[in-house]
Amino acid sequence: MKYLLILADGLADYKIAELGGKTPLEYAQTPNMDFLARTSIIGKARTIPEGFPPGSDVANLAVMGYNPEIYYTGRSPLEAVSMGIELGDNDLAIRCNLVTLSDPEDYSRKTMLDYSSGEISSAESKELIKALQNELGGQEISFHPGISYRHLLVWKNARGRKVNLTPPHDISEKVVGEYLPTGADSAVLMDLMLKSYDILKDHPINNKRRAAGQNPATSAWFWGEGNKPALDSFEKLYGLKGSVVAAVDLVKGLGISAGLKSVEVPGATGAIETNFAGKARAALDELKQGQDFVYVHIESPDESGHQGSLKQKLWSIEQIDREVVGLLVKELDQFQDLRVMILPDHPTPLSIRTHSSEPVPFMIFDKNHPLNDSIGIYSEQAADKGIFFPEGYKLMEFFIKG
Fold first, then answer.
1. Which pLDDT score, from 0 to 100, does residue 402 have?
2. β-pair type (242-245, 219-226)
3. pTM of the prediction?
4. Domain final position from 161, 193, 226
5. Residue 335 CA: distances (Å) to CA of 29, 33, 258, 289, 344
6. Is residue 4 predicted with pLDDT exceeding 90?
7. Are residues 192 and 113 in the same domain?
8. What is the C-alpha separation between 365 and 334, in angstroms, rounded?
9. Which of 79, 89, 116, 339 could link 149 by a cystine bridge, Cβ 3.0 to 4.6 Å?
10. What backbone phi and psi angles, to 5 degrees, belong to 387?
């Protein structure tokens, strides 16, 4: 048996009046998902355990079949794994976004204009992170470039430091004063953020971006702290050798930590526009070339939700259906035994522009065992009528073992 999991990040949403009371998933044209749904198991899973923040780290950990209450050690350590950064047992990894803040002189009165600095390119942001490392880095603190606006700070021997940090995508268009670092050890990070603004605001990269009508990356913003992860291998837990196809360091790092092979896809960006077809092609090729399981992650709906763009979210859903699920449907006959699961990790509702904790809809299609009495519709509301997993990490075992 071959297993393909298609993770459409942030796919789920709320009903929207502009769409006639439908969700984007219900409203979008998705003929290929509709085809699979007619004979699929439909249901919901709670991927965010009680008391956990609704982050992609917790949610993807659960979807991949790991109980967050046992395995979760923070978001950034997983990103560090993907970036090839060796963490010591006592090091603290912290996500470093490059963000666009407004101009008031008092940092606390600035507004979070853009958590992604206009989805700044990796080449541009690498130069900015290099500037921060040159000015602020040292034996204790180091900055590491990642992809687009997503980067990493490593604080050596800082395990147990008390800091409370807020994701920047949670505070779009809000004044940042209420959301600055707090906690007994937060002064170090606050000082770095203040200094980063002075270093970045007039950097030549940002001057060029302003001249081109693009958002400048005017500050570092820290969040997603955590310590070195330790996951049991996916093969040990589920008896399958597998691969992960993802553009974002979080999911790549999670897959690598689980012993999955990380597959690079040219043109895969971790942004709204990405190489949808390339990811699908890579995933199917991995299965054809001997892997038992492939986890393919697509960030596009989540980024659309964070930006509050209904047009982009509908487009991203339809691209996933056309370019990813469509290729799968065309090549079903090339697989003797194939089971497919499609789901988001968490909702990213357009109305709040951040993640929420509601259970997510899933569907499981088995090529050789079609479900004749299926609910037949893949949507948030239809899934309420199906099977429910209150502990979302148990969905993986159900997917694999039936």
1. 83
2. unpaired
3. 0.89
4. 226
5. 26, 18, 25, 12, 24
6. yes
7. yes
8. 16
9. 116
10. -70, 145
